[in-house]
Predict the structure.
Amino acid sequence: MEGTNPVITLPLSADALAATRFAVSPLMHVGAVLHPCRTNAVPHGSLPSREVTDVLQDKRLHLLAAVRKVVHAFAPVFYAPVFLTPPPPAGRPPDPHEDLHRVATAPSHLVARQISRLLGAEPQRTPAASAALRILRDAVDRGERDFADQLAREMDAFWDGHLARQWSAVAAHAEEDITLRTRLLADYGMGSALESLHEAFCYGDGSLRLLDRLTAEVPGSTHLVLFPSPLAHNWLLSVDPRGERPIYLIYPTHPKAASARPNPEAEQALSEVVGPTRCALLADLDVPRTTTQLAALHHLSPSTVSYHLARLHRAGLVTRARIRNSVYYQRSHEPSGTL
């Protein structure tokens, strides 16, 4: 990354880097879908922003809608109360209703402290943010236990109505992505694994830097929990200023749509033209990837991958673009040229 580019910098000590881990969490997928800054061009199977807003209004999920506005009013780094984002257990994805039960039964003193922190912050001065703060204050006045229970019930209604039916596929894809990243970690180290999460990420000099519209440095040096989500449209960073939980970083993944996959006959025909290795590389270029990422995926040397990519690019089968210090390749839609 160029030094003049606006970035969010996350210092990571050796201990923090060693404790950084991947996890699958239903609540993080809910957060990815609820994010109000998401575009209307979202991954297949997810809800665009305007539909999320309509769902919250139609279902009368007023408290959840208010939390949504306030939590994400502090971009680029947002704060979500810790009781709403319980740390996922290691080793297995939690059951969605298990997570929601933990939200509903959070101790009252924790809810009070964390909501007061949210209410005491200064969000962007908009009528919508001010109205959301009034809704939150009115709900808190009825008692912290009632607040947590109502919010959990509204999150449960949103989950059951719009995410439950695709949870198995979403969780399986997230697990598949984690397998890919851990392979990169084993072959190239945590720095390369972190950089592979998104084209806007760069690791070096003990910090993870995220290209953004603004420049900010996250105070402290705690570890990360990394959440892959096929429902996220962009990366999302959640930081607890008191350090009561790790930094949460949601990053988007891109499952291949079944309709977009070539049928076996088409794959065989393509393999006969370009060869099996180039055919396999093309299959994984439905999203932008670097030579290093492809080499790790296919257990090839970077020089071998670079050779094949040069031939594919010359034939018009892939496009390439330089993003800061990396070159990303992606399958093109209108091939031309010769191998």
